[in-house]
Amino acid sequence: MVTIKSAHEIELMRAAGKILGKVHQDLGKELKPGMTTLEIDRIGEEMIRSYGCIPSFKNYQGYPASVCVSVNEEVVHGIPSKRRLLKEGDIVSLDIGVMYKGYHSDAARTHGIGEISTEASDLILRTRESFFDGIRHALAGNFLHQISAAIDRCASGYGYGIVRDLVGHGIGSKLHEDPQIPNFRKRSRGIRLRPGMTLAVEPMINAGSEKVRWLADDWTVVTADGRLSAHYENTILITKGLPEILSLTEDEAEEGIWLQGGIA
Ligand code: MF3
Ligand code: CO
Asked: pLDDT at position 258, please?
């Protein structure tokens, strides 16, 4: 069932999203070569709790950490470890969920560590671009899969592989709600979008093949061909007008990035 949030619920989702944007902004600046992925999780969890929030992912279906940290060929759900050190040239995806007064916000960003290859920086920027192409269609009255098709068009246009085994989702008092939001074209139209729906749209894009596999820890998803993967996710609100992006970082909000290029 796809829920429509009340004005009060929307206020709480806005608050959760704003905190999450701040956590992403601040945690992104902490990343440096030599740091362990466990340190990222520790700092992230402390930030989340400092805002009176609970990390949505910790203990979710047994996931052991607050921040999913996925390096290079890791697509999503990497488990922070004291043995995994970041090094110059790596790309690292941070996926974070926070719960504020019972409402969740979910967002992901991929960062480069020091100087990264052109292949890597193109992948990061174009993954973000595919998100914004997608949500230009996140308008009341449109069909859900218009978002999916637009993400697909953008990422496929660059020759990238779009992960099919994982999808975006509705979000609210639960981390994962209906509907599922694929990042690829479907034959079906999906549900019709209505004001008050809150959605986590999250393209996971591979430099090479779309194929992924799971590591033996049963969490970490990696590209089957070992090539790079990037992730960009925000929690958004469907309104009567343009979608509201609830989890932007301050830098992104200032840039006003997302309306560049107009809407669909
Ligand atoms: N952002 C992820 C998602 O939407 C959540 C990670 S699931 C967890 O699927 F178990 F790792 F928390
Ligand atoms: Co998500």
From this structure: 66
Q: What is the pLDDT of residue 256?
A: 82
Instruction: Pick out the chain residues at pLDDT < 50.
Output: 264
Residues 6+ apart with CB under 8 A from 28: 94, 109, 111, 249
Ligand 1 neighbourhood includes 184 CB (under 6 angstroms):
no
Distant-in-sequence, close-in-space partners of 222: CB < 8 Å, separation ≥ 6: 73, 74, 75, 212, 213, 214, 215, 229
Which residue, among 130, 141, 146, has the nearest Cα to 188 in the 3D structure? Answer: 146
Going by CA atoms, what residue is nearest to atom 12 of ligand 1? Answer: 57
Answer for the pair 110, 117: CB distance below 8 angstroms, yes or no: no
Please tell me the distance from the alpha carbon of residue 109 to that of residue 128, in angstroms, as a whole number: 9
CA distances from residue 77 to 96, 171, 217, 227, 256 in whole angstroms, order as listed: 10, 18, 10, 17, 29
Q: What's the pLDDT at 260?
A: 53
Is the CB of residue 180 below 6 angstroms from any atom belonging to ligand 1?
Answer: no
Give the pLDDT of residue 264: 47
Cα separation, 92 vs 52, whole angstroms: 26
Q: Write the pLDDT tens digit of every residue in 35-79.
A: 999 999 999 999 999 999 999 999 999 999 999 999 999 999 999
